[in-house]
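Sequence and structure are no longer studied apart. As an example, we show below a sequence and the tokens encoding its fold:
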Amino acid sequence: MAIQPEPIRLLVGLGNPGPRYAETRHNAGFWFVDTLARRHGAEFRPESRFDGEVARLVLPEGDCWLLKPMSFMNKSGLPVRKCADFYRIPPEAILVVHDELDLDPGVVRLKLGGGHGGHNGLRDLHRHMGGPNYARVRVGIGHPGHRDDVVPFVLDRPGKADTQAIEEAIDTALPEVPALVAGRWDEAVRNLHGGRSKPAGPKNSEEAR
């Protein structure tokens, strides 16, 4: 059954907490929501009941909660579930931003549902949300070339060129947030996939990954 997206009421950025991980590839979701909050004057604050940091994004198109789980990547699902339950937000009104190995740096894509692709944050979200019935922003970080290199790759800082490319991809996607909050999914997909943004070829590290 196809997922029918709703106006976004909860926007989640995935990442790992603390300075050790702040500039790593795996924190692209945090980069996205931090930039979004900064540009719209929203301030994150700790919320112990969700084990995360939350902010309220106020736009002409509507209000939306921002969430950064502070539970490490492979335990992202429960904070999202707790926040969604508290605000009575269904999965179809949730947008999750995460790093994507199968897209080059500089590429960003929207997606509805689908598998977790080995991403431990998405894997845990599937478990706690009862499936993949939420929308996603996939921020390309590239692939190291071999599966055995994935964990150190995502937990490392990208080089200058890749950092710039990832930041530019985020800048490309941010203007589509108001349309997503308004429920205009098709419009956001047309804008983002229409050439403005390119696809590539597949606290311990395991907890962080």
About this structure: The first strand starts at residue 10 and ends at 13. The longest helix spans residues 160-173.
